[in-house]
Amino acid sequence: LVDAGLSSVLPLAPLTGDPGLITALVERWRPETSTFHMPFGEVTITLENVATLTGLAIDGDAVIVDIPDEDWSAMCLRLLGQAPTDLGGGVIRITWLRETFDELPLSASPETTEQYARAYALSLMGGVLFSDRSGGSVHLQYLLLVEDWRRAGRFAWGAAVLSYLYREMGRSALQMTASSSLGGDFGGWAALLMLWTWERFPHTSPLHAVTGAQITQDAVPRGIRWLPAQTRQHGDQFYLYKLWFDECTTFVVSI
């Protein structure tokens, strides 16, 4: 995972999304410009923000998957050593990955170790970095990205994650034109969106909900500094008030 450039994400993976905050942000999102429309102007998440907050590379090869010549089941067996019986259309359940590859055996061979690492990376991509709206499955095409660890290390993971998040934000914003609530129907790395918001809009951060939280200022990547805090979830109207009305008085320009 270090070779693949994904290790910096591991401590951030447990961070979960706050539906109220995400809904409020999506309501301010403009797909035409990929920016948030705020009282003081337009702002957005940049590649530099992604690199600073997550440690993911923003320079390198484009994250592109080639369709394999073999069928999905054969590819799964080759790269993971096992394949689920209900594999259809190249989609695999994340729960199956986590149950099957729960703990690496102490006597595992180098080949088995790589298979377990690929399973973890696939779960990380499908459940965190490039999560879809189902939240419970991942396409095996992502497994090809970690077939060769050295090749994976040349990918601009941060650029791909941000691009995917932009697309999902746009889809969700268009969906909300016909619905007043987003609910759990959101794809992309929600924690990245929340980390950026806490940094840029301090009045929305967990520091205002939790007393005594010790936030390390010089953490690397910077997103790790929020791990000691416990998020208190609120409704979207609460956050809309903080992001749009009287309380939107502070925007941190540099992080």
Automatic annotation (TrEMBL):
| Domain Aminotransferase-like plant mobile as annotated: residue spans | 15-246
Query: Could you provide one GO biological process annotation from this protein's UniProt record?
Result: meristem maintenance
User: Origin, by domain of life?
Assistant: Eukaryota
- What is the name of this protein? Aminotransferase-like plant mobile domain-containing protein
